[in-house]
Amino acid sequence: MADHLGPSSMYDDGDNDVNATANPHLGDIVARRYSRRQTLFGGMSAISAAAIGPMLLAGCGDDGDDGANLSVTAGQNAATASGRTVMLTGTTSDGVATGVWTQLDGPPVSFGPGATANAVTFTAPSVAAATSMTFRFAALSSSVFADTTVTVQPAQLGFTAVAKNLNDTVTVPEGYTVTVLYRLGDPINAATPAYANNGTDTDFAARAGDHHDGMSFFGLAATGNAPDPSNSSRGLLALNHENITQRYLHPNGPTGTRAGEVRPEAEAIKEIEAHGLSIIEVSRAANGTWSYNQASALNRRITPLTPTQISGPVRGNALVRTAFSPDGTAGRGTINNCANGYTPWNTYLTAEENWAGYFRRDASDTALRSSKVNALLARYGGGGERPGSYRWAFVQPAAGVSDTRFAKWNITSQPGAAADGTQDFRNEVFQYGWIVEADPFSPTSTPRKRTALGRMNHEGAWPGRFVAGVRPAWYMGDDAQNEYIYKFVSAATWSAADATAADRLATGDKYLDSGTLYVARFDADGTGVWLPLVFGQGPLTAANATYAFDNQADVLLATRIAADLLGATRMDRPEWTAVNPATGEMYCTLTNNSSRRPANVNAANPRAYLDVKLPQGDTVNADPPTASQATRGNANGHIVRLREQGDTTEATRFTWDVYAYGAGADLDRRNVNLSGLDATNDFSSPDGLWFSRPTNAGGLVNPLLWVQTDDGAYTDVTNCMMLLGQPGRVGDGTTADITNRVVETNGTVLTGTATARVGALPGQALRRFLVGPKECEITGIDSTPDGRSIFVNIQHPGEDAADPNRPTSNWPANQGTGTLNPTGPRPRSATIVITKNDGGVVGL
């Protein structure tokens, strides 16, 4: 080659550009043809991006001596789909110069934290179909660049199913991390000492309560106390404390528990205060670690002794007047809070479930009540004589002291007290069974009982989609055998401006104190009707011979009786409700029903069978099947779903089917395991239910459905669990004619047939994501708006221990190891955080 002699020689060696056309450069062609490649997708190839190695992507600049190597990877599963973390890594030919990444086309993304000069990450956006995105890496020291293409597929489950197990730890898929965040007894202010966990601790009004349950995350502004629904790094967790494991709260278990004994005041106060709600501030550090702020001014406990307001149609009614509130406008506390809900104006809805059992009623009380009130008490499980679950009414206050903290649990009419209930607590029981609204951002605000939503064993109040100009709705289950599913439709149409209202509880007054409560009737043809519980309509009148209603407040106080009279469909214990954010379809868990028999199945609850606990490998094909150690009825539960007519919350008709039937994988697929579950997704007793938020890829296009279990029928095989699915639409399946068979304890074999509606459920569309520790329930779930952190509650681990000093679980102290020490430490209900190690959206 000729020497380069420089400009004085007039010899240019081709350095002069005299082609003024727009024809492409060879370098451009090379960059477009050879530097563009798609990421690998799971299921297409077993070869990973790492195995292929980086591709040489060179572009020619003016000096011709620079280049770029780019490598595109899409997370641990070598697949790029919505919600997964994508890493772009660019290098320069000399390995020294730095570069910059820019996006050329496709759905816009933001490069995440922790980027270096030549490497960036982003979360693949939500897409409905395969979508290409082009990125350019350009060296800062020259004009050399190279492009690469990332193709994103729709969201899909991105983990290997967790195996069933009986370990004493929380098991999650490979690539995920569990962090214990907030445990029974953890202090919520700086003055309260750490929890000793030996039964000596006191002051539970300033500690985490027991039996963590339903839960919601509310984003906080980066500084101050204002709501910021988009913040995923700082927020408030509002969570329920449904019940207690009594024996672990005291050094050697409770005392004064037998008839004729007196309960110690200190023990009773501890147990009472361990119920209710927690509201705590939580935050995510720059390294991704979560913690709660013990000293936050926003931290709060709401207990069964916290003042409340009665709001809506029942406010001031004669049946809610007590010695504490003679005008029936106020009360104290909330109890047995199970599932939950929320409002778009940033308040928390908590549900009072099995409240009736806490109250004492002496035999003498029946004669002092009207037949109508006796019928009302009986319909809600409060009829007849009972001591109350924890005998709190048997605390003996000091001489001359009237301590209504304990007297309120005795609903027996007191001799000489006014017949209107204003001088005793005969009406206290009617102040429970409601949905309660609390403002998590105002620690001094008074929670309000929203009586327009009816009185029952509430399992949450989950909202439908909010559409401007449309009346919003909340969906609710009544958790007891053969009870009903309800919907409350507000009288007010939704205005988006109310989402940022400063007075959040006043906004609740607007939407939650007036409206129409409906109960569901499921018809055999796959359609259904919402029946209005409105005074003066149908049988809900003063002339009704079964139960004479005086007004709308009377209908709401006796919601169950009103639903009976309307002919609602009796269901297999309706529990949590959840609404698909993309379609508006409502899902409800029907956890189980031991009283279901072949003679009383219905279209929406078509199974009655014998679930036999057999040695591994045996089957249930014996005729008749073995009846020993068996659960009868619908032992494993199912999940029903409905689609509103016109896809609007205001609809009064719907279509429905069953999303999934719980069953062991080995059960009869023709008559019991109707969804064809296998070892990766078989489950029993669905309870908690939640869809991923529509603020991230997990809740868009085909949202993720999380299913949690509270099981007694399958615990010989596995601890309770959480599954993750991507459901289709109502009506996507088929029908099946099934034969039901139940063997009674006396050897009688009951048989019958039914037609079941079965939704389409491909095996890999539902997968086990988590298995909990021993003797627990998995319940309560929410996430940060970005979906990168999931909060889950683990309730009552080790609940079966007879001796508190010989626990059957040590969780969460042994999280990660599962090692069981029979002498302690004692187990504790707790909230955990689950994160994906690559920083992506959990589950995808």
Automatic annotation (TrEMBL):
Pfam families: PhoX (PF05787). InterPro entries: PhoX. Residues 1-23, 796-831 are annotated as: Disordered. Residues 806-822 have a biased composition (Polar residues). It comes from the Bacteria. This is Phosphatase.
